[in-house]
Amino acid sequence: MTQKLYYEDLYRTEFDAAVLRHEEGKEGVRVILDRTLFYPGGGGQPCDKGTLGGQNVLDVFEEGEEIVHLLDGPIPEGEVHGGIDWDRRFELMQQHLGQHLLAAVLFKRFELRTSRMRIEGDDVSMDFDNTHVDEETVRQAEAEANEAIWRDIPVEILYPSFDEVKLHARKLPPKTSEPIRIVKVGDLDYVPCCGLHVQRTGEVGIIKVTSLENHKGGTRVHLRCGRAAFRWLDVVCHEARRVQLELTCGPDGMFQRVLHLKDEMRELTSRNGELLDQAAAALAEELLQNAEHAGEHVLVSYVLDGAGQGGHEPLPGGEVKRLFHALTQRPGVVALLAGTDAEGVSLLFGCHREDKRVDVRGAFKQAAEMTSVRGGCSPCCAQGHGHLCEAQEQTHAKLQAALDVAAEVIRQALSSGQ
Ligand SMILES: [Zn+2]
């Protein structure tokens, strides 16, 4: 049975121990010592890291009565010197006691029982299964838990009888023959826990709840404590300051300013859409005036890419669909459109959706092959996208050539009474 030095002195960082066994495994070198300062993880708290005999400790875990240290290299026989990563351990102890304090207030004041907790990186999460916990309750509990921190209450570790535990504990441990380890914080908390905690509440520094989410019909509360909370607040404050400078407001004005900007954006987007529709309608009118007549149909073929007819660009390249809509809402119009935008090229062929005399699929297939465009077809609407890597003039020429071929296919089909 490995002697657990981490329970004897929470603030010790280095130790010497005898190597009982070591063996090469798939994941690293497994080392068993007669005693250790490395906490193997448990109670939601991850294991300690550090060095042992000059090698890095990758993982520490319990196997029966023994504690296994997984190292990234071999160590000599006999005595070995170890040191834990103190910054990591101290932060884990801050996070763990901070979580106890918030859980204790939520239980004592609001009768909310934590189902489980987990420390992962800088984040601590607490689950309340099948119980909805609202934000206001958590805010109140957070404030009270911070008050408990600032009262700097000593943390006691007790090993009472099971009857005592049943009488006082916030939650009961699983039935065991082993002594039950109780973490007691003044008259605020009395809870069984195998984890490691700072020895006074003041060392937690601060608790900050960062978010709440729905989880398993209940609520998961995310929080950070101590140094991890400071790191988080540092980032949030820095980012908030940058946003305030952009919005020329203080921290309490940010939300209203963002809502205002979103309204403005919605209005501008809507106005922009109307203007683009008007521009598309005007361009459609211009194209129809100069369009080719093929029997009862009017054939419009156009490359929308800034090098188009008339040398001006009334619509951005990505607006092929607006132009298509403006053209094909008129019965008798067959539109063969191509466009370029940041993502590549697109083809859009079609006619009024009730015009059964036209089928653009054959024309689209040929044009798509010439421009390496992929897409889907129906008789009255065929569209696809592709990449063209050439310079803009070459792309334009290639698209124009594809439209010329497509126009010829349509012309022949219409004249043969499709
Ligand atoms: Zn605990």
Structure description:
With 418 residues, the chain is an alpha+beta fold. It folds into 3 domains: 3-84, Beta Barrel (Elongation Factor Tu (Ef-tu), domain 3); 90-246, 2-Layer Sandwich (Threonyl-tRNA Synthetase, Chain A, domain 2); 270-415, Diaminopimelate Epimerase, Chain A, domain 1 (Roll), CATH 3.10.310. Helices cover 37% and strands 29% of the residues. It has helices at residues 5-8, 86-110, 135-150, 162-168, 226-247, 254-289, 320-328, 361-371, 392-415, and strands at 3-4, 14-24, 29-33, 35-36, 50-52, 55-63, 66-71, 79-84, 116-120, 123-128, 155-158, 182-185, 189-192, 207-215, 218-225, 292-294, 297-304, 333-341, 344-351, 374-378, 381-386. Strands 2-3-7-6-5-8 form a 6-stranded antiparallel beta barrel. It has a 6-stranded mixed sheet with strand order 16-17-18-19-21-20, sandwiched between helices. A hairpin with a 2-residue loop joins β20 (374-378) and β21. α2 packs across α3 and α8 (361-371) runs antiparallel to α9 (392-415). Mean pLDDT is 92; it is low at 307-312. The structure holds zinc ion (ZN). Zinc ion binds next to α2.
